[in-house]
């Protein structure tokens, strides 16, 4: 295993739920916490990467806020997967000598802003907008309907994804979820966009996160417990639902195998999976795309509690977007949880002996996908 990048700091913004900071302020707060995990100073950061539904030029906003004048700046946006893709971009930039230490940042006050929030759907499709579908849930509902039609997937099987996320969330003190959830609860919650119920949908929260990265060779000098990025593969297949060739196929089918091959590992070598869970159907389609189960069988695959704590597939061990946090874009929080697990800092939700993690982010309505494989120092030795 030869790493391409090292993560030396990864943290959420502690004040996210208070509603007292701006999106840039949340990024700055998370950056301070992440820097505290290293011997680095703010002035050591010379690369900035960010994406945002609030800021037209997010790295420029972040740079001004933190007083950083970078030598490398990247505001690539492929939806919620952006921050996973930034791992690969930062690795390339550092390897090319364009920067030495990069900050990946995200901040959102989506819950506080409510109806006033900046909408990320800035380019409405002429083929979709006239029909009045609620974006993005209408697209995911179409996917769920198609998956049910083709493969016999049931609402109860979709609900199992939400129930598993809730059980992990109950082990996470940072989660707002305090009550258990049953399959009947999910199926009995109001329909939002048929066949998806309210509890098939992610939360709407505030949130901020920061990930600090550097070269693998430098990592041990600035951090006691770096986490290494072994690979990062990205792709996108469409911009709108109407441009998708197959409503039940995810870009994970392209990026998952590539990331595993580049890392030199197989799915059986992965200890923890952190997968974008904006909606329950998104998880089922991703599991199939990654190759964890054959096409069309994800509903049956998860139905036996496989994703729950103690199950065979530890997935979204922090509670995910369904039960802990989803501030518009989720990708950076998947990375943060993977790092916590690989550092053994998961507390009650810690997966014993976790040495490798697969992170998969998606953007839009399964239109972009990015897969990264991470490992701790003990694993790569």
From TrEMBL:
Protein name: Thiolase
Origin: domain of life: Bacteria
InterPro entries reported for this sequence: Thiolase, Thiolase-like, Thiolase_C_2
A Pfam family this chain is assigned to: Thiolase_C_1
Organism field: Pseudonocardia ailaonensis
Span of domain Thiolase C-terminal: 233-375
CDD domains, per database record: SCP-x_thiolase
């Amino acid at each position: 295993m030869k790493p391409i990048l090292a993560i030396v700091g990864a943290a959420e913004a502690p004040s996210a739920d208070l509603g007292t900071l701006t999106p840039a302020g949340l990024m700055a707060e998370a950056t301070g916490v992440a820097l505290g995990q290293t011997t680095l100073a703010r002035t050591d950061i010379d690369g900035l990467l960010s994406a945002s539904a609030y800021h037209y030029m997010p790295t420029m906003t972040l740079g001004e806020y933190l007083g950083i004048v970078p030598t490398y700046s990247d505001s690539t946006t492929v939806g919620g997967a952006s921050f996973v893709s930034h791992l690969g971009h930062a690795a390339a930039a550092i390897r090319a000598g364009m920067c030495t230490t990069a900050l990946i940042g995200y901040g959102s006050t989506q819950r506080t802003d409510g109806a006033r929030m900046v909408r990320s759907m800035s380019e409405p499709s002429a083929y979709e907008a006239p029909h009045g579908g609620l974006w993005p849930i209408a697209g995911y509902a179409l996917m769920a309907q198609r998956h049910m039609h083709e493969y016999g997937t049931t609402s109860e099987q979709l609900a199992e994804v939400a129930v598993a996320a809730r059980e992990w969330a109950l082990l996470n003190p940072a989660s707002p979820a305090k009550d258990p959830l049953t399959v009947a609860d999910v199926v009995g919650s109001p329909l939002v966009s048929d066949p998806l119920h309210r509890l098939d949908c992610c939360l709407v929260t505030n949130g901020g996160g920061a990930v600090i990265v550097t070269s693998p060779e430098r990592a041990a000098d600035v951090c006691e417990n770096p986490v290494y990025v072994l690979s990062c593969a990205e792709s996108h297949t469409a911009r709108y639902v109407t441009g998708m060739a197959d409503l039940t196929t995810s870009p994970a089918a392209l990026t998952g195998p590539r990331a595993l091959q580049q890392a030199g590992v197989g799915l059986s070598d992965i200890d923890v999976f952190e997968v974008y869970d904006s909606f329950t159907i998104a998880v089922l389609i991703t599991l199939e795309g990654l190759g964890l189960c054959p096409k069309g069988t994800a509903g049956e695959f998860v139905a036996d509690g496989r994703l729950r704590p103690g199950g065979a597939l530890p997935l979204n061990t922090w509670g995910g977007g369904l039960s802990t946090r989803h501030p518009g874009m989720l990708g950076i929080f998947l990375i943060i949880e993977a790092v916590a697990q690989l550092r053994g800092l998961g507390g009650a939700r810690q997966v014993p002996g976790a040495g490798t993690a697969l992170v998969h982010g998606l953007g839009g309505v399964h239109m972009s996908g990015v897969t990264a494989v991470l490992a701790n120092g003990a694993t790569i030795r």
